[in-house]
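Continuing the series of single-chain predictions for the mutant panel. This is the parent chain; the variants come on the following pages.
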Amino acid sequence: MTDVTINAADGGTFTGYLAKPASGTGPGIVVAQEIFGVNHVMRDLCDDLAAQGYFALCPDLFWRQEPGIQITDKTDAEWAKAFELYKGFSEVKGVDDLISSLNYLREVEGCNGSVGTLGYCLGGKLAYLMATRSNADCSVSYYGVGIEKNLDEASAITKPYLAHVAEKDQFVPPESQQQIREALSKVNRAAVHFYPGCDHAFARIGGAHYDKASADLANQRTADFLTEHLKA
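Parent structure:
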């Protein structure tokens, strides 16, 4: 488990946390961060994916504003900082950096070249955009915020895409959820699961809205999905 340096498509470099499987070989997953940076939550997720046999890379998507952000969801000051970074974030550049990370991971020694994307919160929206704009082999979104704003891209999804939506998500109102449901129901390679009674970030262990039963269900669905589309 180590930090690596990735070349940006438009110049400059940024870092990412890379966890490798014990076997030294396998498929890869680019993990798109929440609004708190490449913190211990994201690093733990990468370590867990590595234990499942994947090369897992979580790139620093806030590097263009402030490199090395690692904050938590535990204080008002950290939330304020996270939202400040979120507001200043360019989704276009973020997707570019994820594509650069995808290309980097495919060239890592031991990676078999089959690489998907997995994102949470902000990263959940970016995972959707990776499904519409990149050649990722599959993509998974956990409670992506703002997906409804780019549903005109849904027809561009040609590789398997899985979305987990919290029905009580304070950042994704019911009308937005319905738009997502209707648009993605028309996409053959897309599947959407809704989690009743759950708020945003229901799968973040230790978070205010963590729901173990729903998180376990979503995580098992994700594990089965990734096995089918990256390991099969």
